[in-house]
Structures are given as C-alpha cells and as structure tokens.
C-alpha cells in the first residue's frame, strides 16, 4: 500500500529484490520507498484518499527506460459483512473440493 506523508508518496510492504551482483551495501528489500510524482498528482491522490476507507494500492509494476514504474489506484476497503461473505464462500468451496476428493478415492 502507499501513503501520502508530508507531501510525498511512500510505498510500504512492497518487496523489490536486491541487486544480485551488488555488494554488502544492498538495502532491505521491503523498506519504504519514496515515489516520484508531480505535485498536482500528489494533491489529487491526497484529496481522494481523505475519504474514510480509501487507500492507495499498487496495481502493477513495469519497467521503462531503466526505471520501475508503479501504477497506483485509489481503492475502497472491504466492509465487515463483505469479509464474512468471502470467508463463507471460501469455506463452501473447500468443503466441495474435500467431498470430491473423498469420492474419487473411493
């Protein structure tokens, strides 16, 4: 996820593997990373994330001219009842798979 702090966009919990041929000075692969954005982009994202329950989420990472680019989106978190519903679906799917496996075995 990304967060806007002091007018800067910082990406957290994003793993970037260290340079394989680097020396001892390779940095932590999960350290917070500062993203480069135009001030207008930062202000627009800040306004959108001020609504309760909205967050900046990285959608995809790609490379262009030697730079890693990250596509960000403003996303809304799940509600408690949505989480419960998702858990019920997962549990039902697991039960069906277990029953099918038992039936195949004999």
UniProtKB/TrEMBL annotation:
InterPro entries: SmpB (IPR023620), SsrA-bd_prot (IPR000037)
GO BP: any one term: trans-translation-dependent protein tagging
Keyword DNA-binding included in the entry's annotation: no
Coiled-coil zones: none
HAMAP family tied to this protein: SmpB (MF_00023)
One Pfam assignment: SmpB
GO cellular-component term (any): cytosol
Molecular function per GO: RNA binding
Keywords attached to this entry: Cytoplasm, RNA-binding
Protein name: SsrA-binding protein
């Amino acid at each position: 996820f990304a967060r806007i702090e002091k007018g800067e966009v910082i990406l957290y919990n994003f793993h970037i593997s260290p340079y394989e041929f680097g020396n001892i000075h390779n940095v932590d692969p999960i350290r917070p990373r500062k993203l480069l954005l135009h001030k207008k982009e930062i202000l627009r994202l800040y306004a959108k994330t001020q609504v309760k329950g909205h967050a900046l989420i990285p959608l995809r990472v790609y490379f262009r001219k030697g730079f890693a680019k990250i596509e960000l989106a403003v996303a809304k978190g799940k509600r408690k009842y949505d989480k419960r519903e998702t858990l019920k679906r997962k549990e039902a799917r697991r039960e069906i798979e277990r029953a099918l496996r038992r039936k195949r075995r004999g």
